[in-house]
Amino acid sequence: MYIVTAEEMYEIDRYAIEKGGIEGKILMENAGSQVAQQLTQTFTKREKMAVLVGSGNNGGDGFVIARYLAEKGFDVTVFQLVADEKIKGDAAFHKHLWLNTSHPLYQITEPLELKQHLCAYDIIIDAILGIGVLGEIREPIRSFINVINQSGLVKVAIDIPSGLPANEGIHVDKAIKADLTYIIDAPKTTVFLEDTSRYYGKWQVMNIGIPDAAHQSCNPNHLWRKKDVLASFPKRDLYAHKGSNGKGMVIGGQALMPGSILLSARAALRSGAGLITVATVRENIPIVASQCVEATYHLLEGFSGGFQSRNREAFQQMDAIAFGMGIGRQNATMLRELLESTTCPVLIDADGLYHWKDLLRSQVKRDAPTVITPHFGEMAMLTDRSVAELKQNPFSISRQFAQQHQVYVVLKGKNTIITAPDGEQIVSDQGNAGLAKGGTGDVLSGILLTMLMQHQNVLIALANGCYLHGTSAEYLVEEKHSEIDLLATDVIEGLSQVFRTLS
């Protein structure tokens, strides 16, 4: 599934019309009919529906929706909130078809008038403003939105809640807070931003017959789904052995934080790694070994003494390495030598990111992939930006950072944004609030370590790892746990069920 900006959606529509040979009024018909079909399955004929239309394609969709609902016997009325001359082109064509049905159409000019009418209805279908909103919402639409939000009725938005921008980085002035949004063709960027996603309510994407070539023409971001995992997940060979399934290492765990490295190691093994070595200080080895008997161990004298030759030899035997879980923020020189002397993928997480920031100015160069897995606070530290700015612009800031430093960025959150050094991006929206616990990031690092060893494509490896992590939490909360009591160790054990669904 694709994720698009407003500009990309315009280009997709243009391609479908000019090169795909699909007339705009047919696309509008497809969109409206698909939404109407979903509405008839969601609501009953006892509920009265008010379709509020504006100008542009969104208003045209509203006329089509109303026509199909009326044909199915629903009690539906259209309220036009703009002047007649603003209904043009394909929207005017579908307005004419609605008028031919002899069902009512009321033109509303005053907010109080709309408020009085809505008292007789149960459901508002919002087809007022589309994806082109950029700034301040002008009157009378601004007051209409206030009336709708204060109505207490069920609010269903078409494509995007009116007043909400489609793109990141745009201030939300005034927007409808929908209970349900039927998105046309592809989710827009603001579906996945913390401050704007709440306006959508529950959402569902409507396929309206736009050819895939139209989407590929503008190279949009991807939303990772189970079908993508099934198509890309490596199958285990009949003659596989522990070496062929990846030999990895997790480095970290100062004396006061043995749990971090333990969680990463167990997650890597449960994810299917052939061999995992835990590199940590002496005090941690008995603790970790007592709960992770399948791992082997490499003794570190500390994290600030650089590489001893025995360390370098051990690290260079690995297929991938994860560094930083529970390592602390004290000055450490190990990371530079690790990056410069190894030819395998290195994943940097947790406090390792603080050590890595010290290396950014010196621009450590390496041919093998480097992966960083920050949450918003850590990304703010790395980019010298505020968390608020990051939450408004996560896609563009992640892309800029990944391209500038030639790293893979896994920006963790409710919607995790995975960015490649060339700027390609994938979003993983699996998971739930149960993952808002200490240790779940360490589990993700262990899963990603295994995926890096078993996939040829790094971006797909990271996307599949995020899918496994989030889906494990979803299954556990559905069947056994709540979002309150779910622990990081539970997520590790839940991986078994996820893998069964992929076999």
UniProtKB/TrEMBL annotation:
Keyword terms of this UniProt record: ATP-binding, Isomerase, Lyase, Metal-binding, Multifunctional enzyme, NAD, NADP, Nucleotide-binding, Potassium
Reported function: Catalyzes the dehydration of the S-form of NAD(P)HX at the expense of ADP, which is converted to AMP. Together with NAD(P)HX epimerase, which catalyzes the epimerization of the S- and R-forms, the enzyme allows the repair of both epimers of NAD(P)HX, a damaged form of NAD(P)H that is a result of enzymatic or heat-dependent hydration.
Matching Pfam families: Carb_kinase, YjeF_N
Top-level taxon in the UniProt lineage: Bacteria
Co-factor remark: Binds 1 potassium ion per subunit.
EC number: 4.2.1.136, 5.1.99.6
Cofactor: Mg(2+); K(+)
Residues annotated to bind K(+): N58, D126, S162
Catalytic activity: (6S)-NADHX + ADP = AMP + phosphate + NADH + H(+); (6S)-NADPHX + ADP = AMP + phosphate + NADPH + H(+); (6R)-NADHX = (6S)-NADHX; (6R)-NADPHX = (6S)-NADPHX
Residues spanning the signal sequence: none
Protein name: Bifunctional NAD(P)H-hydrate repair enzyme
Record-listed (6S)-NADPHX binding positions: 57-61, 130-136, 159, 326, 375, 442
YjeF N-terminal domain location: 9-216
Alphabetized Gene3D superfamilies for the sequence: 3.40.1190.20, YjeF N-terminal domain
UniProt-annotated binding residues for AMP: K412, G413, K414, N415, T416, G441
Oligomer status and interactors: Homotetramer.
Family indicated by similarity: Belongs to the NnrE/AIBP family. In the N-terminal section; belongs to the NnrE/AIBP family.
Domain YjeF C-terminal: 225-502
